[in-house]
Amino acid sequence: MESSLLDTAAAAVSLCPTAAGRRRAGSAASFLSCSCSSRDCRVSASYSHSINRVLSGVRSAARKKLFRADPADLLGVANWSETTGTGHQQQHWWTALEHNFVLESTDDEYGGVVVDADRLPTDKDAFARSLAASLSYWKSVGKKGVWLKLPVDRAEFVPLAVKEGFKYHHAEESYLMMTYWIPDEPNMLPANASHQVGVGGFVINDQMEVLVVQEKYRGSSLDGVWKLPTGFILASEEIYTGASREVKEETGVDTEFIDVVAFRHAHNVAFQKSDLFFICMLRPVSSEIKIDETEIQAAKWMPLEEFVKQPFIQEDHMFQKIMDICIQRLRKCYCGLTPHHVVSKFDDRTSTLYYNVAKPEDVNCSAA
Prior knowledge:
Order of helices and strands: HHHHHHHHEEHEHEEEEEHEEEHHHEE
CATH class of the domain at 195-340: Alpha Beta
CATH topology of the domain at 195-340: Nucleoside Triphosphate Pyrophosphohydrolase
Helix content: 25-40%
CATH architecture of the domain at 195-340: Alpha-Beta Complex
Keywords: Hydrolase, Metal-binding
Protein name: Nudix hydrolase 8
CATH superfamily of the domain at 195-340: Nucleoside Triphosphate Pyrophosphohydrolase
Shape: elongated
Structural class: alpha+beta
InterPro entries: NUDIX_hydrolase-like_dom_sf, Nudix_hydrolase6-like, NUDIX_hydrolase_CS, NUDIX_hydrolase_dom, Pre-Nudix
GO molecular function, one term: NAD binding
Number of strands: 13
Family: Belongs to the Nudix hydrolase family.
Strand content: 15-25%
């Protein structure tokens, strides 16, 4: 059944020389009716009206075999449909073809399309032809941005997309995302993520000892320095859970998040990304240290006074200020930001809003 449908569709797409000549003359009726005596060369007007029904019954996997057709035939039909008017028969012919040569995709909310990465052709030539045909179609219907996600096992498609004008957007371990902006106007597609997010955990126990580490891989400026446990937030991870996770991974100590006491914003850091670094105050709920030997050289509980007096902190204005803030927070002379789950009408999703809910207990506190 699948083969017969494909044969029928292929016969409908084929044009005899006489019909081709009439097509160039601009006659839709001539295009849809061949005067050749050969049975294989006859395409009647009534037959053309059944093409949609025939092609709609072809399964997606079988339709992809049509990508092997001569691209000149496909683009010729498309161009003819666009340049000779908008008659019913011409539109009908275009509609019959568009769903069988255009890459599977869904519309995004900004007038563009997102190509279905799971339904890409497996053959390079088929992909090249279908991509060219898809761009022609998307342009004709007024689409704007195109998002093309190419999995690792389709890496050979990357040069073909570049040749068509696609640009790199971002890459992950399993795929490369590419984009194409169609209108002749400023590109409105959102750029790749511009920031990385880090956290540092200020963990202090009832004996006024701070949990500190020495990293195994560090710059020479950090030789001998004891610092706070730090790390990067994972995808879809909250700041407060990320801070506790990093402390646990590096030192083995379990903690309870209290609040965000400060954050730093720096630019052109790793890979020219901007960096947001959140200082979080945490309460320890265990005390035994068990370091992650792959990245931590040593860890210990250090008296707060000794930690603050390290030359590295005393000579660095930013770290000195961070310590001042943390000490003020311990004295309850400073309020940090605590997480609260809220739902916004903007996207109808739950997110985390950080803000303080209390005033310092002692308004006469002074900086340490």
